[in-house]
From TrEMBL:
It comes from Hydrogenobacter thermophilus (strain DSM 6534 / IAM 12695 / TK-6). This is Phosphoribosylglycinamide formyltransferase. Pathway: Purine metabolism; IMP biosynthesis via de novo pathway; N(2)-formyl-N(1)-(5-phospho-D-ribosyl)glycinamide from N(1)-(5-phospho-D-ribosyl)glycinamide (10-formyl THF route): step 1/1. Catalyzes the transfer of a formyl group from 10-formyltetrahydrofolate to 5-phospho-ribosyl-glycinamide (GAR), producing 5-phospho-ribosyl-N-formylglycinamide (FGAR) and tetrahydrofolate. It is an enzyme of class 2 (transferase). PANTHER family: PHOSPHORIBOSYLGLYCINAMIDE FORMYLTRANSFERASE.
Amino acid sequence: MKLGILVSGRGSNLQAIVDAIESGKLPCSISIVISDREKAYALERCKKHHIPHVVIKRKDFGNVQDFEEELIRSLRQAQVDLVVLAGFMRILSAHFIRAFPMKIINIHPSLTPAFVGKDAQKQALEYGVRITGCTVHLVTEELDSGPVIVQACVPVLPDDTEETLSERILAYEHRVLPQAIRWMAEGRVKVEGRKVQVIGAKYGTLPVNPQLEVF
């Protein structure tokens, strides 16, 4: 499976994908990485691993549709099979989503449908929940609300700050995102309405300190 990965920041989830590919755990290749920020550290990771990459900035276009058309053009030119939003800090329109129907996945730092949108970790702290986590979901036109492929639960500790909670969640993001991509690559993700079934996945009660299927 050929991946097109959209990033905006330091690219730690991109690195997790790269590590999984290079270790042989993920049967994919990265055809292109697109950043909307020219100073994103994710681009340095691309250079280190010789990954094709391009910067497409919103401010270089007269409107959002022209910006997204360039994203679409670049992804199609790279012949990607799956678009991965790995810390891409822009809300994509229905126009973009319809260009890759059910072929876009996102990693979000909460257990959706709770705490969608920006600052999900801050929202969780302010609400006072004891458990939060991260979600890999298919992208639909409703923000952070597409069918869930996999989630991981993360405890919220009494002395947590937004930064400490974010880092704890991020460690799980690095595990579940490559896992979800592998399931997609193997053709095991089946969607019926809002429900996702992963063919052959191990469901049910997990032991303490569970190990994910691949990692």
